[in-house]
Please model this.
Amino acid sequence: MGSTRAEAANASMIAASKYQSYGNDYLVIRESDLTRRRAAALTRDICRRHFGIGGDGCVFVEPGGKDRFRIRIFNPDGSEAAMSGNGCRCAGAFVHHRGLSQNANLSLETLSGVKGHHLLENDESSWRYRSSLGRPAFIPEEIPIRLEEELSQVVDHPLQVESAPVTVTALSVGNPQCVVFVSTLPRDAEFRRLGSALEVHPAFPERTNVSFVRVTGPRRLDVRIWERGVGPTHSSGTGCSGAAVAAIHTGRVGSPVRVGTRTGEQEVAWQPGEEVRLTGRVEFVGDVHYDWREDDEE
Model:
């Protein structure tokens, strides 16, 4: 299985391990000498559904010291992500699964800082982690979001999308999050229309993840997530975290929060001034060897 392009050259066999967290699937690859450009090209190729192995992204893992690992995360469109809650969890599972560390506590270096991962359960091919994602940011420049108005925070703010305003709350949990609170989760057509429009809205210079959030109890949310560089996704660790933090910050729910998607629930705990803590599971899918026929032009 590999690329079908006629001009392909420079074939190489890539070993990858596939993990999924609530249907959010990642291919985890031991770091090599791949440059950023080649890592992006490989990700675009291998993540293709039907023509590649298929995945919501690639995570490249490189040892960085005792129980410390450097990771790079790429989206299927080749863009590099600073952070991914489920992607980091998949990387942690890979490290423990392959015996790269015996310590229950791991430090994962991402573009948005070091994230601590504590192994709570290990059941051969399934793991549960509590992850520390850092402190959320609400200052517009730190998200980033750019509006004509000067605001200290973007909370329940009307944002013009196409021909109508959409009320959004914006924050960062290592990557930009746009949270839309709704009384009813949008159906597929509306979800795709608004999700795609908000992801590339001019107010978000680095694009954004989008979560549509329905409050279902004092400590419970249901969400649908449109992920930057991916599109519709079954789940997202940072998307669930952003939704929960926004709901806590605006007084809609209390912490900890159970955040449900169609494929399961994750727990998010946060108090003002503290780090976001995300708890959830990850499962091993399988190992693959991918016959990557890299284009000369890549």
